[in-house]
Amino acid sequence: MAQAINLKPFRDFFRSEQIGGIILIFSVFVSLSIANSAVGVGFENLLDVKLGYSSSSLDLEYSLSQWINDGLMAIFFLLIGLEIKREIIEGELSSPRKASMPIFAAIGGMFLPAGIYFIFNSNLETTSGWGIPMATDIAFALGILSLLGKRVPASLKVFLAALAIVDDLGAILVIAIFYTNELHWLQLLYSAGILALLIGMNYWGVKRLFFYIIPGLFLWYFIHHSGIHATIAGVLLALTIPSNPVKKTSPLEHLEHLIVRPVNFLIMPIFALANTNIRFENKMLDGLTSPLGLGIIFGLVIGKPLGVTLFSWIAVKSGLATLPSRASWKHIFGLGLLAGIGFTMSIFIALLSFSNPDHKIEAKFSILLASILAGVSGFIFLLSLNKKRKRRIRKARISSQRKIA
Fold first, then answer.
1. DSSP states of 285-350 as a string?
2. Which candidate among 7, 186, 275, 305 keeps its CA 20 to 30 Å from the CA of 343?
3. Residue 2: pLDDT above 80?
4. 226: three-class secondary structure by DSSP
5. Among 373, 374, 381, 372, CA closest to 330
6. Is 92 exposed, middle or buried, given 0-12, 13-18 or 19+ CB atoms closer than 10 A?
7. How far is C-alpha 216 from the geometric centre of its chain's CA atoms?
8. pLDDT on residue 24
């Protein structure tokens, strides 16, 4: 007799994402308020403060902002990696038919926005930012969807979570392949050796998390010094953590349960505080109409819903997938709008894309505006679908009562 799958970690993950999205929104407002106040310059100076230790044999001295973007965000990517692996083993990505719909939707939601951005920025110095509108912020998207409660089918929440996870995996691959500069092969060799050790421990049945976390810290250090962005270490570590498809809690589920709340209630708000401290200036409005700003805004607000809907339609019409239960194509389009909330991952890629500070500021502001537009339009659109459904039900009841009378 098949054993039941342990769904508690997924429920914990989803609940904390909802609350985490609200905290993330609050952190953005706080960061913007600080940046445009008298303490804004002081806050920027605080982010530039060097912390850590450095010697001829050990280099661990970085600015506070680097520790946030390279260190704390590695833990965020560890959580994303754990969720990806668990979904592959026991969730929405565990079979070709289950995985095909969110995978197709995510691919469409990555390629079309990237293409739109490239059209606006082709042969310009901002071309490197094509990966910015590909991303979906899982915390914000699920947080806003949760505000709709029972007004939308429950299957849509699972579908959006799976889509965002596949989207995150795509963003991780984009960062690893396209946003890596000079490679240091000796450090990569050390990283490969540690990764092989972690895989070996998984194969030999080592279950204690301690034996994975300690090598994982060294993996982060060597990947950080190899030229590949250090956050990739979080994903690689996650893929080696032991799991199982049964009810008994696995080390993977245990670790996910331990870090999901710190990530969503602490790490993500800190990231938002450190990276959305945008001082509003008149020239920012000009940046919105520049190829950079237009590429990001059109990519996230228009490219995302069109890409998600079009590729989902292809998956269904080809017989590879079916629509989520009780969902319509209008629901899929609404989810596509919410997927246009790029925020966290988009800002992260923007920081890697440009060396020009003005481009970084323009990109952040455009991402912020596009994410607000996508979130508000997605919420209103899905809410309107529920109101129309209620009106149809009400009319059907009235018509039925008249016939009986």
1. HHHHTSHHHHHHHHIIIIIHHHHHHHHHHHHHHTTS--PPTT--HHHHHHHHHHHT--HHHHHHHH
2. 7
3. no
4. coil
5. 381
6. buried
7. 22
8. 79
What tokens does 336 get?
Answer: 């596509």
**Separation of alpha carbons 301 and 290, rounded Å:** 16
CA distances from 166 to 161, 188, 191, 263 (A): 9, 26, 25, 19
**Cα(188)–Cα(194) distance, rounded to whole angstroms?**
10
pLDDT, tens digit, 9 for 90 and up, residues 58-74: 888 999 999 998 899 89
pLDDT at 331 over 50: yes
Q: What's residue 291's pLDDT? A: 94
pLDDT (0 to 100) of residue 284: 73
- Give the end-to-end CA distance of the chain in Å, rounded to a whole number: 53
Please report which helix (H) or strand (E) contains residue 326, including its range: none
Q: Is 205 left (phi over 0), alpha (psi -120 to 50) or beta?
A: left
Q: Which helix (H) or strand (E) holds 160?
A: helix 154-178
- The answer to whether 18 and 261 are in contact (CB under 8 A) is no
Distance CA 294, CA 367 (A): 10
Average pLDDT value for residue range 267-280? 85
- What six digits make up the tokens of 170? 């795509």
Q: In whole angstroms, what is the distance from residue 131 CA to residue 361 CA? A: 16
If we measure between CA atoms, which residue out of 79, 257, 109 comes closest to residue 170? 109
SS3 52: strand
DSSP characters over 245-289:
SSSSPPHHHHHHHHHHHHIIIIIHHHHHHHH--PPP-HHHHHHHT
Unique residue bearing structure tokens 């809410």 = 383
Element (H, E) at 48: none
